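Summary of Year 1 activities. Much of the first year was spent building the evaluation harness for sequence design. The harness presents a backbone, in tokenized form, and records the residue chosen at every position. We chose the following record to illustrate the format because it has been used consistently in internal testing since the harness was completed.
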């Protein structure tokens, strides 16, 4: 069910991005430091709340096929939100796409209960049209792949493209 929700949110992001009047990333942003190394999305940046169910979706990828997806339920507007695995309301995936795939996440409570965690702050509502609220903000946290393999995320920033 969780993977279905992730795929659904990702599909909504693709649809919303394709409906954007400006489909380059001129004004979109998804960046962060992962274990102290700067990362920035180059393609398909989106950061919006689906108004019908108050679900925040943030996604983007770089030219090396690394994809970052963040989701959070029950968003009520500008404010700070906890991302913790055990409440099943948040996810963060960092897919590094080597062979085999390496995925760090704040999402798998059955694998690593209470270890992965993060904070996400929505600082600004950019627009609200066509059932989507475009947002910007910041995030940070720790995402685990296994009990002893994690990444520290700092200086995370997101902003939806026009």
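For this record, the design step produced the sequence shown next.
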């Amino acid at each position: 069910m969780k993977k279905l929700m992730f795929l659904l949110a990702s599909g909504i992001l693709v649809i919303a991005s394709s409906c954007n009047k400006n489909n380059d990333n001129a004004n979109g942003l998804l960046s962060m430091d992962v274990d102290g190394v700067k990362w920035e999305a180059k393609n398909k940046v989106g950061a919006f709340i689906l108004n019908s169910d108050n679900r925040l979706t943030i996604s983007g990828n770089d030219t090396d096929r690394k994809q970052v997806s963040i989701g959070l339920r029950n968003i009520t507007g500008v404010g700070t939100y906890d991302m913790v695995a055990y409440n099943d309301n948040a996810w963060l995936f960092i897919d590094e796409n080597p062979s085999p795939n390496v995925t760090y996440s704040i999402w798998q409570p059955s694998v690593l209960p209470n270890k992965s965690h993060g904070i996400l702050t929505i600082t600004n509502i950019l627009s609200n049209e066509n059932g989507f609220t475009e947002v910007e903000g910041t995030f940070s946290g720790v995402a685990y792949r296994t009990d002893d393999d994690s990444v520290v995320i700092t200086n995370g920033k997101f902003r939806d493209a026009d």
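The first helix runs from residue 2 to 19. Quantitative recovery figures across the full test set are reported in Table 2.
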